[in-house]
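Figure S7 source data.
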Amino acid sequence: MSHKKFEDVPFAFFTVSKDGKVKYANFQAELLMDEMSAFGIRRFGEFLLGKINGDNLVFKTPRGTYGIKVINSRKDYEFFVIALDEFNQPLGDIMDISSLQHEIKNPLTVIDGTAQIIAAKAKNEYIEKCAGIIQKESGRIKSILGNIHMLSEMTVTFDEVDLESFINELRDSIKIVYSKIEVRFRVLRNLTVIRADREKLFMALSNILKNACEAQGEGDIEVEVSIDPTIKYMDKEMDRACSMLRIVISDSGPGMDEQVMERLFTPFFTTKNRGTGLGLIIAKEAIDKHHGRIEVNSVKGKGTDFLVYIPSRIHPASGRQN
Ligand SMILES: Nc1ncnc2c1ncn2[C@@H]1O[C@H](COP(=O)(O)OP(=O)(O)OP(=O)(O)O)[C@@H](O)[C@H]1O
Ligand SMILES: [Mg+2]
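Tokens for the predicted magnesium ion complex:
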């Protein structure tokens, strides 16, 4: 069967042999495989077969939700993998996040206030403890709402960011919470200034660093900041191709298995008792807005590297760096 007619269709099309090898992938399929390999799923054919054999025909990536459709399984398996548009819409287009937030916050404030009164008037420790739990959990809901709101309305404003003060602030903010961790930054290529949205980049790196600290518990976490000259970004504003700034955050925690890697950027996915499962989604949204990307390499039992790339948009004429 000729696959030429599938070359430019707006969905991913694959032919996969029964032993899990991808025999044909159209343009959209290549994009999808690139996206998945950034999350450690390099044998995409085997991944698809696993889904089909487990009768699990829907999977998610940070870009959207995909449905798998088998269109021919006589000699080879042939798959449609089609993006389900309704799932791909930004959350903000489906519902008005601000009003939803408002509707939930109002009763939450009442719950929190009432719990405070109960705690103040409690005649025994147990009641006081229960009221404390209600307050803590309603605080958690508030922070989830805040994160969802931020995700739905994230905008970036680029400015020149002094790298040294940025790094110091990041290191200090981590140290306050994770006192047994030392974050060691290594800055290569004489970088002194980067162009970014300071607050959003801080938030992204801070979320990744927090995960590294929580995974490792104590000791050193390495962060290397450099320029990757091999990857270029076409900066239309500056009308030139620029290199990518690369920030690698390495921990020697327990690493992740494939099941966790697969769901890493799924909203609310967490393996932690008190996690919201939004940290990495926020990091990804912030880096996407910088026209960058995040890659993850993890080895179970050894540790994890998060690689953050953003275009290095400082003009060489500024005399500072590329
Ligand atoms: N460096 C890491 N090492 C091991 N597992 C990690 C690492 N980073 C992320 N993970 C896994 O990815 C999951 C999702 O991370 P994410 O930051 O999105 O949410 P969370 O950390 O669980 O919650 P929150 O960020 O709200 O505290 C984590 O629960 C953890 O299982
Ligand atoms: Mg986290």
